[in-house]
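2024-03-11 09:14:02 DEBUG pipeline.ingest accepted 1 chain
2024-03-11 09:14:02 DEBUG pipeline.ingest length=260
2024-03-11 09:14:03 DEBUG pipeline.predict start
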Amino acid sequence: MQKKWLSLGVLSCMSFFAEAYCIDNWACFEKINTNQKIEYWLINKKPYPITSTLEVTTKNLKSNISAHSQYSETRVLGPLARIKVLSLSVIRQNRPVRTSEDFFWTPGIQNSVHNNAYRYALPYAQNNSVRLVQGVNGGFSHQGASRYAFDYAMPEGTAVYAARDGQVIDLQESHNKGGASRQYAKYANFVTLLHDDGTTGDYYHLKKNGVAVSLGDHIKRRQLLGYSGNTGFSSLPHLHFAVYQARSHGRYQSVPIKFE
């Protein structure tokens, strides 16, 4: 998974305007500026839950509750949701108003409770023999957010199967670049499934045009998802698989899982 965020700043004259800022045509925040007030709304443009954080730094503005220079609001947004998270009013009429915003989001439900009783299927064919090249706490890249991830060495084009039931909420298959540097991370092809406990299953480094499912599909355990590749932050052809919880500020954390 990749952290997704946007940073903006503006000196406002407080005339009326409304603007929306979006990332990936999915997660947005809207800023509505009237003569004496600014409202912030969070928006989810797709039918899958997300966790969004909006940070606002201000000058000469206060909220309905108290006067601060910084505000941080995190919300879980359901499908196609739009909610108001902050309302600010001018403190001194004859002084300029300044705002700057940082916006973050990630798919899934913040701090979802993983079903630890679930036993996952291996994400490849049952009759296939695959080598695990990096596991839990792997020194190359399985630290921090991806601590509980698994990397399976696979020749490009190896069939990848769902380890658990879920709905396809995100995918990418257009890239054809990869390498052993984080600068290639944005070029990964992948499929993300939303599980019934609010966690997400990520299947990364798929080949170009190697996705066999569509957005919104409801996937059964052991159903074909696509074909392995060597795209993104990858030092050899392999599949990266992990289960993640969404966190605030565009962060996420893998969770320990057990296989059958």
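2024-03-11 09:14:41 DEBUG pipeline.report The chain has two domains: 4-107, 119-259.
2024-03-11 09:14:41 DEBUG pipeline.predict end
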